[in-house]
Amino acid sequence: MQHKLYPTLLLATTLAACGGGGGGSANVTANDTSAAYSGKRDLAPLNTGNQQIFADAIELSVLDIGSGIGMAARPDTPTDANLSPLGQRHNVVSRAMDEYMAGRNYQARAFNSSVDCSNGGSISVSGDLNDQTGQGDLTLNANQCREDEILLAGSGTIKVNKVDFNLQKITDYALTSRMSISYAGQTYSETGVMQVNSDPYAGRVNVVSNINRSVAGQQILDNNITLAADSSGITLGGQLCESNHGCANISTPLKISLTGSSGQVILTGASNSKMRFRIEGGREWLDLDTNGDGRYESTTLQED
Predict the structure, then answer these.
(1) For residues 201 and 22, what is the distance between their CA atoms, to the nearest angstrom?
(2) What b/e sequence results for 69-81 when a residue is b if at least 16 CB atoms lie within 10 Å of its CB, and e otherwise?
């Protein structure tokens, strides 16, 4: 794929919120997701042979996790406007939940709302929440929803833990799903759970992802991958695993600025080998240290 990591971070897409493949929704736990992954679990030796594989894998993971970023917008600004120049085009699930919350105020029973996707199809949210606690389970359905390069289909479940009734906004929830997603010429089967917690007043959001993706003999696992976003920038953590090579630990020694001017994300594998995504002046570089001596032997400019 060789896309940049920074704009991928700012695509507040909807992948993890949708089910697919006609399999229906299920209550999926982090343990279930880990058990579904049958690939290598040892740390991978990061090298020129697998650097693009891991770069593509973290891009896909971040696209999933980015579904929560739009909730970090302050209530007095347009959703996602201070985080992405693409705005609400990539925030369709958040919009669907907002539409649901706005519409249910005028309904005495379960309510269904639907929003159109940017390039065809739609996403709907249905069900009912407790009037006092705001808690409950909602069903999310994607009907051939196309958001630029991404095509979604199927259904999933939103377990709502907390609602801000003043803003009429869902602020704490878990997305569980079994899905298929078409992206960059590949169709992935996904199973997993993603937890999202936000503070719209402070402009903060935290996401924890446990998603397993399968395609053509390959599996990619988010092993407790975390994303934290606020006005000071974006931080990633946790572990990313690829079935044929193994795992790499994720760290963010320098927060990724919301303007895209600076930031560093590092994947660390076996023998302290490292891949570093380095953002300087709006340009992004992928650096590789294969022997763990702290010196990066190769540098590649990541293109859009």
Answers:
(1) 38
(2) bbbbbeeeeebbe
Q: Which of 56, 80, 60 is nearest to 70 (CA)?
A: 80
> Half-sphere exposure of 121 toward its Cβ, with a 13 Å CA cutoff?
18
Return the half-sphere exposure (C-beta side, CA atoms, 13 A cut-off) of residue 20.
22
Q: Do the beta carbons of residue 27 and residue 165 sit within 8 Å?
A: no
Is the torsion defined by CA of 263, 269, 274, 275 positive or negative?
negative
> What are the contacts of 247-253 at 24+ separation with CB within 8 A?
247/40, 247/41, 247/42, 247/43, 247/44, 247/221, 247/223, 248/43, 248/44, 248/46, 248/54, 248/275, 249/43, 250/58, 250/225
Could you tell me whether strands 204-215 and 233-242 are parallel, antiparallel, or unpaired per DSSP bridges? unpaired
Tally Cβ neighbours within 10 Å of residue 41. 15
CB neighbour list of residue 4: distance below 8 Å, 6 or more residues apart? 284, 302, 303, 304
Give helix then strand counts, H and E, for the chain.
4, 14
Each residue's pLDDT tens digit, 228-256:
888 888 899 999 999 999 999 999 999 98
- DSSP letter at 43 equals B
The partner residues of 168 in beta bridges, in order of sequence, read: none
| Whether 39 contacts 243, CB under 8 Å | yes
Angstrom distance (rounded) from CA 248 to CA 246: 7
pLDDT tens-digit readout, 126-169: 888 888 888 899 888 888 888 777 788 877 888 999 988 888 78
